[in-house]
C-alpha cells in the first residue's frame, strides 16, 4: 500500500510543479484574487512540496498575512477560505487531463493538504478579527473613563454611554485609585451621558458609592435626568442615604460646602461686573 | 502566631496591620485592643490597613466587631488606608461595614477623631 501512495503523491506534486502557468491562470479565474498574491502562495507551496521535510511554515505565514489583510479590507471569511479551496479545482483539471490513476489518487492526498491550509486560513481570519474586536474594546474602555479633578479634594467621573459590568468595574477601580492617589474625600459620579439606568446599572453605581465610603470618601451621584429619575422610581430602586443631585453644578456646590468651602453670592457679583463694563 | 502591635499616641491607639491576618491573629488583636483601650483610657482607635491586600468576610467582620467593642468602651474607631481592591472585595462580599468610620489615610483619620471628639464636647 505504501509504495503506490508514495508514487501517487510524487505524481501529483510533479503535476503541480510542472503546470505552473496553467494552474495560476485557472486559480486566479476561480478565486477572483489578484495574480500577485496567488503567485507568492504558489512559490511558497512549491518550496514546501519540493523540500524533504515538507515544512509548510512559510505557506502558513503567507496565509495568515493574507487573512489579516482580508479582514481589514472587509472580505467575508468564506471568500477568504474559497481562495485557498479553489486551488483544488484548478489542480483537479490538471489531474483529470493527465488521467492516470496515480494522479487521481494523489489528488485526494493533495486535497486534504489544501483543506488543512484552508481551515488554517479560516482560523487566522477569525483570530485577526477577534484581535481587532479586543483592541477596540480596550480602546473604548480607556476612552470612556476619565476621572477629572474639579477642586482640591473633589474629583468627578463623567460617565458617557451604556454601562455594563466590565465598564463599571473599570470606572470603579479608576475612581477609587484616584481617590487614594489624590487624597480626595469627595467624588461626583455624573451620569448625564448614560442613556438608561436599569436595576443592574443602579446596582453597580451603589456598589461604587459603598466602596468609596469604605475607603473614607463620600460620593455624590449627579446628572439624573427626569426620565431616568422616573425609571428609577418605577423600578423601585432604593438609593438609600446616597446623595443624588440633578446637575453637576449642584453636586459640586454640595461637595464644596461639605469640604468647608464657602460660596458667597458668586452669580450676583458676576452680573455686577458685567454691568460695570457695559 | 504573629501578634499585631498596638501603638499609643496621646489618647489614640494606632494599629497598623502589616502581616497576613489569620483567624487566630484577628481574635488575639480584638482581645489585646480591648485590654489596651481599658488600661490606657484611649478615646480613639485607628486601624491602618494600607498594607492589607487580601481580605475575607471574617476580617471584614473584624472591623465592625472592633468598632462596636471600642464604642462600648467610649472610644471611636476609624479604619484608614483601605485599598481600592479591598474595598471592592468587601462590597462584593456584601459587607458595608455599617457603624465603622473610614478615612483615606492616617492623617485624615487622626483629623476625623479630633473632629468627632470636638463635636462630642
UniProtKB/TrEMBL annotation, chain A:
<dbReference type="InterPro" id="IPR051932">
    <property type="entry name" value="Bact_StressResp_Reg"/>
</dbReference>
<dbReference type="InterPro" id="IPR036513">
    <property type="entry name" value="STAS_dom_sf"/>
</dbReference>
<dbReference type="InterPro" id="IPR025751">
    <property type="entry name" value="RsbRD_N_dom"/>
</dbReference>
<protein>
    <submittedName>
        <fullName>Polyvinylalcohol dehydrogenase</fullName>
    </submittedName>
</protein>
<feature type="domain" description="STAS">
    <location>
        <begin position="144"/>
        <end position="255"/>
    </location>
</feature>
<keyword id="KW-0597">Phosphoprotein</keyword>
<dbReference type="Pfam" id="PF01740">
    <property type="entry name" value="STAS"/>
</dbReference>
<dbReference type="Pfam" id="PF14361">
    <property type="entry name" value="RsbRD_N"/>
</dbReference>
<dbReference type="InterPro" id="IPR002645">
    <property type="entry name" value="STAS_dom"/>
</dbReference>
UniProtKB/TrEMBL annotation, chain B:
<dbReference type="InterPro" id="IPR002645">
    <property type="entry name" value="STAS_dom"/>
</dbReference>
<dbReference type="InterPro" id="IPR036513">
    <property type="entry name" value="STAS_dom_sf"/>
</dbReference>
<protein>
    <submittedName>
        <fullName>Anti-sigma factor antagonist</fullName>
    </submittedName>
</protein>
<dbReference type="Pfam" id="PF01740">
    <property type="entry name" value="STAS"/>
</dbReference>
<feature type="domain" description="STAS">
    <location>
        <begin position="2"/>
        <end position="113"/>
    </location>
</feature>
<dbReference type="InterPro" id="IPR051932">
    <property type="entry name" value="Bact_StressResp_Reg"/>
</dbReference>
